[in-house]
Amino acid sequence: MKIIAGLFVTALYTIFVQNLVMCSGLGMSEAMRVASRPGTFIKFAFMISGFSTITSLLCSLIGSFTSLYTSYVVKATVYAVVLASVYIVAAAVIAVFTRDKELLGTLGIAALNTLVFAVPYINDTANYNLLRSIGSGLGAGFAFVLAAALIGSGAKKIEKNTKIPEIFKGTPAMFFYVAIISLGFMGFTGTTLF
Fold this sequence. Notes:
This protein is mainly α. It has nine helices and no strands. It has a domain at 21-26 and 40-146.
């Protein structure tokens, strides 16, 4: 029970306190793009969650079995190789079982995402064990889902709002909206801006 609680707490911490999309801007462009295309939202969110979790798990396993890599460059290279390997395996599985070209394109965007690449490094920095790394990976995926859902909801309201001046309609209004939400998430972190 203690193991599951640790995994769950780490996932919740990653979703709300260390939301990499809202607090760090990692994967923000993908979140905004996916929020505007509800048809790909579920697939993309599932892929982000899967890549974050699997990459975190594999990098944690590699880190626990070897202490060979201590420099940032070597760690980044290991993380990139693990992420590329997971992408190649996933792309091969999808290519064998389906001929959906759009799914393969979405898979590439989801895998080669700054959010997915940052999760193993953050896990290493926080000295997460294997289960907490899995929780962090799941939390990063759900954090992306939460961010994209909030952005999508706000985009609909912004589009319907007639009081927004013409010069601010569209992308400028969306940036203001995302900045305000990001400030709210930054409040959970306990850090000060000034």
